[in-house]
Fold these 2 entries.
Entry 1:
Amino acid sequence: MKAARIVKPKESLQVQDLETPKPKGSQVLVKVLASGVCHSDIHLWEGGYEGPGGQFLKTTDRGVKYPVTPGHEIAGTIEAIGEESECLFAKGDKILVYPWVGDGVCPACRVGEENLCDKPKSLGIYVDGGYADHVLVPNYRYLVKIEDDMDINEAATLSCSALTAYNAVKNANLRPDDNLVVVGAGGLGLMAMQLAKAVTGAKIIAMDLEDEKLKQARKDGHADDFVNSKKEDPVKAVMELTEKMGADAVIDFVNASKTVETDMQILRRRAKVVLVGLYGGELKLNLVTMPTRAYRLIGSYTGSLSDLTELVSLANRKIIKPVVSDRFKLDQATEALSKLKDGKIMGRGVINP
Ligand code: ZN
C-alpha cells in the first residue's frame, strides 16, 4: 500500500510503500477513497502549536510518534474483515470511519465520549490514518454505513469537520430565538451554520475577515447576517444586529487571542462561548463579569460516535450538505496542507488516494 507520511515535522510529506495490513479479530481493512485535509493535520505536520506566552506545545509531548500517516476524515469501502466482524459488514460496503478511537476503559470512553479519552489512539494522529490507499481500523464498531448515493468526498468530511461543528452547536445549547455568532466562515464554520439552522433555528451572524468567505456563508451556510471584522468594528456591528443585547452564543472556529477578545465583548448575559479553533494564544478575562453576567466558556473537541451517527442521518437525508472545494492526489499531500495553511481552501479539501 502507499501512504503519504510525515517523516519529520515541517518537511514535505513522503509517499512511502508500506506493507498492507491484514485485519485480525474485529479489525477491518478499509480501502480509502477520500481523506479530508484538516487544520489539525497542519499542527501534526508542524510538530505542535502555539500555547500561552508564545510557547510552542509539541505534538511529541502528547504522545505523537513520527513517521506517521495523517488523515482522520476517512471514507471508503471495506476491503477485508477480521474473522469476528463478518456478520455486520461485507466486503465492498460503503463506509465512514469514526477516527476518535479511545482506550475503551477510561471514564470518558465509558460514557461514550471516546473523542475525549485519557489515552487517545485516534487514527491519523497517534495511529496511521487516511492519507493512504488503505487504513486499518481497530474495530468494526468504528464504521458507519453511508448511503450509496452519498458523495464519498462529502462523506469524508463528516467524521471531523462536520462532527466538530455538530458537537459545537450542541454545546452552544441554542434555542430558536437565540442569536448565534459563528466566527470563521471556513469549512467548519459553514457546516456549523447549516447545522444550527437545521437543528436549532437560531438566527445566525457569520463573522470573518474576508468578503468572499462571507459570501459563501450566505450561499452555503444560510447565515442571516454578516460581519467583516476587518472592515468594520465587530463589537459595534454585532450589537447593532442584536438590538444592543449581544449574542446568546458565540462559536469560535478560529480561537486566537484576537477573536476571543472580541467574542467576550459581544455577549448577552448567560451567553455561551464555545471555543473550537486550534489557532491558539491566550486570553485575559475580566473575572467579575464571569459570575455577574453568568457567561460560560466551553471547549469543544470533535464529537462522539453517537454524534456521528446522528450526523450521518442528517446527511443521508440531505438536510446538511458538506462543501468540498478542493481535491488532491496522494502525492499532492504537502501542497494540500500548504494551501489549507495559507487559507486558500474555501470549503474542505480532500485527498483521493
Ligand atoms: Zn480534523
Note: Residues 38, 40, 72, 160 surround zinc ion (CB under 6 Å).
Entry 2:
Amino acid sequence: MYSQGLKDAEGGQEPAGLLKAFQARIDKEEKIEPRDWMPDAYRQTLIRQMSQHAHSEIVGQLPEGNWITRAPTLKRKMILLAKVQDEAGHGLYIYSATETLGITRAEMNEQLLSGEAKYSSIFNYPTPSWADMGAVGWLVDGAAIMNQVPLCRASYGPYARSMVRICKEESFHQRQGYDIMTSLARGSAAQKKMAQDSLNRFWWPALMMFGPSDKDSTHSAQSMKWKIKRFSNDELRQKFIDATVPQAEHLGLTIPDKDLNWNEETGHYDFGEIDWQEFINVIKGNGPCEAAEVYQQKKIQS
Ligand code: FAQ
C-alpha cells in the first residue's frame, strides 16, 4: 500500500503553497470536489477508505442474502430482501463516488478479489441462526451508523453526500434488526436463548468494526486533520457501547463482557479488553469464515 506522507503521485514533494491552500479550505469546512486540486495522499486515502467501504457493503450482502429463502415469515422475507437490495445500492453509490477520484470500478473489483483491498472484518463471522439476522441489523448496522453519521460531514463532497441517504437506510436496517431481537427475546425460552447466543457471538466483532485502538491506528491522525474522519476509532466505539448497552438491557439480554460497568465519573461504560490478535487474524484473511472467498467463487462461477 502507499504511505500516507505528503508526496505526489511520482514520489516528489507536493507544492507547499498548494498544500497550505488545500488545508485552509479544509479548515474552513469547504467541501473538496472531484476537479479540485488535492494532495495525492488525500486522494489515495479516500480511494482506500471509500473502496473498502463499498466492498464491505457488497460483501455484507452475502450472510443476509443466504437467509432470504429461510426467513421465518413472508413479512420478514420482504424486509430482508429490501435490506439486502439497499446494501447493493450503498455499494454502488460509494463505488460511483470513488470513481470520481480516478480509479475504475474494474480496478476496485480486482483489488477486492486479489485481497489487496480489505473489507470490514465483521463479514468474516458466520451467521448460522435466524437470530443472527437480528444481531447483524441491530449491532452491525448500529455500528455502521455510528461510524457513518460523522462521514456525512467528510471533507470530500461526493463521499459526504453519498452518506446522507445511506445513513437513513442504515437506520431502518438497525431498527429491523432490533425488531427481530425483540420478538426473539420476548418469545419462547429457546428463542431467547437463540438471541443471547447471537449477541454472544456478535458483540466483540461489532466492537472491532471501529478499527484498531487509537494508539495503533495508522491513518487516523492525518484523516482527522483532513476532516475525512471526525472522531477517532476509540471515540466512536465508546459512543456505540454507551448507546447499545441500555438497548440490550431493554431486551433482557446480557452483554458478554464481565468488565462492563457504568462509570459515574466518566459518564461512560468501562469495558473489557478487545482481543486484538483475533482482529489482526481476521483482517489478514484468517477469519472464521472468509466471506471474500465465497464472493470470489461466485464471481468465478457467474
Ligand atoms: N475491518 O488506521 P486505521 C456496513 C484496517 S459498512 C477491516 O484505523 P482507518 C454496512 C484499515 O483499513 C462497514 N479492516 O484505518 C452493512 C487499515 O488497513 P489498510 C464498513 C480494518 O481507515 C451492514 C488498518 O486496519 N464501514 O457494515 C478495520 O483510518 C450490514 C489500520 O486502521 C466502513 O468502511 C475493520 N473493521 O479507519 C452492510 C466505514 N478497521 O487500509 C451489510 C468507512 C480498520 O491501511 C450488512 N471506513 N481496518 O491496509 C472507516 O470509517 C475507516 O476506514 C475505519 C478504519 C474506521 C473502518
Note: The CA atoms of residues 60 and 123 lie 6 Å apart.
